[in-house]
Structures are given as structure tokens and as C-alpha cells.
Write a structure and sequence with these properties.
This protein is extended. The chain has two domains: about 40 residues; about 35 residues, no CATH class. With about 90 residues, it is mainly alpha-helical. The mean pLDDT is about 85.
Amino acid sequence: MEKQKELTRLTLDIPTDEHRKLKSMAALTGKSMRDVLLQALDYIDIECLVSAHIPNNETQKVLEEIENLENLVRDKQAEIITKKLGL
């Protein structure tokens, strides 16, 4: 039997637009906002944050494009986005 984890309450004040994004992500994936945030934490590479890691050229180029809002795939429906991305 799995031991139950101790829980701690977290209260965040975030901009309305960011709240809408979080709520939309939760709705599109059928998850709670809590689950979306916990999943995002799983993707954060702590080693990368605390090390002197430098992304390779391809990653740097993609990050620059994202910052400049270039080559982004946008749509209002998740199904269409996944088709555009070939997923």
C-alpha cells in the first residue's frame, strides 16, 4: 500500500491572463489546475537550473523563436494543433 504524502496548501496571486491559460490547459487535458501545475513541475530539470548548462545551437534557436513569437503553431482547438504539429 502506498504511503499518503503530506500536503501543504499553496495560494498564488497570478495575472488574470495566466489564470485563464492554466484553467484552459486543465480543461483541454481533462485535469485539475493542481494536476497541471504538478505535471509542469515534473518537467523542470533542477540540474539544468542550477548548473552552468548551455543549450545546444538548435535549442537556442528555438528558444529565440519562441521569445520573438516566430514559427508558433496556434489554434483554438487542441485536435487541430496536434494535427498541425504532426502528433
